[in-house]
Amino acid sequence: MRSTVLLPLAILGICTLHRVDSEGWSYGGNNGLDWGSDANHPYCTDGDYSHQSPIDIQTSETVLNDKLEPFAFSNHWNLPVTHGELVNNGHTYQFNDNDGIRTVSGGGLEGAYTLLQFHFHFGSTNSQVGSEHTIDGGHYPAEIHFVMYNAKVEADLLGRLAVLGFFIDVSDTTDDTFLGEILLSIRNDVKTAAAGDRIDLNNTIDLSTLPETAGLDQYFRYTGSLTTPPCSPVVIWTVFHSPLLISQNQYNSLLGGTDEEGEVIENNFRIAMPVNDRIVYHSPGTVGAAEEKRQGWKYAVTAIGAALGGIVLCTLVAAVVMLVMKHKKTEAT
């Protein structure tokens, strides 16, 4: 199974997500806006950033797509990960699923996509800014990306990868059981190991509750890129509307780790790229700001139209009555 999964990684050029060095790029300075100036990462500007990710999702400008039905998760998600490893890659904490059996289909995707890995983007201590995508300009404290691939799509074509992105919010009371084991291992194992060391988590990680997460029918969809070098524009993005909730204690598990240079890993999010002429869709189940704003405008326009129509009708009726009365007065004379 391991070779089956690692081969697509090499072909896709996203192995940089697994290496600590990652050809020298960092989140310092302007958080990824200048990555394209490096000859090693030509996709990262894509000319005018026209196919780059992440983006700011302006909910009032999203478009309903009736084909964005609920997702279907294979039964393998109910099994513990037999071959899994957690690594501090120098930029984030990443869990590699080397089983190569967990797939997702539906959701407007063409064919089945197999889980490769998932990783975190987050801010710093006491920061509410950490997610890569934003909603109407607003960040969440963190974001988790499930990176999946479709072996039937050529490596350099759009649709080779599909990423499921979940916002993460901090709750005063909630301990998320789905992310609990991962966050516990980050705190106890990965942050105490050297950057680049891989921690085997065989038969300990349970992903079965992810398909049961509430709100999986409420999401946004657009086409974009990897949010780290090489920034390949091959990704079909799904960004779920409802965040996953974790406790402050669990969130703190992400903070305080260091890279191979001893620098603290924090604020590891790329800033929002221009949407340009791309269309951002929302699923029929997305009952949120997009629908509310659209409905609000619709009702406002309807109300204004009705009022104007009433005024025009009353004016016409009054004019007709006056003409009739004038005509009768003329006849009487």
TrEMBL record:
Domain Alpha-carbonic anhydrase: 23-284
Superkingdom in the source lineage: Eukaryota
A Pfam family matched in the record: Carb_anhydrase
SUPFAM superfamilies: Carbonic anhydrase
Cellular component terms (Gene Ontology): plasma membrane
Signal peptide range: 1-22
Reaction it catalyzes: hydrogencarbonate + H(+) = CO2 + H2O
Primary enzyme class: lyase
Function text: Reversible hydration of carbon dioxide.
Annotated family: Belongs to the alpha-carbonic anhydrase family.
Protein name per the record: Carbonic anhydrase
Annotated source species: Isodiametra pulchra
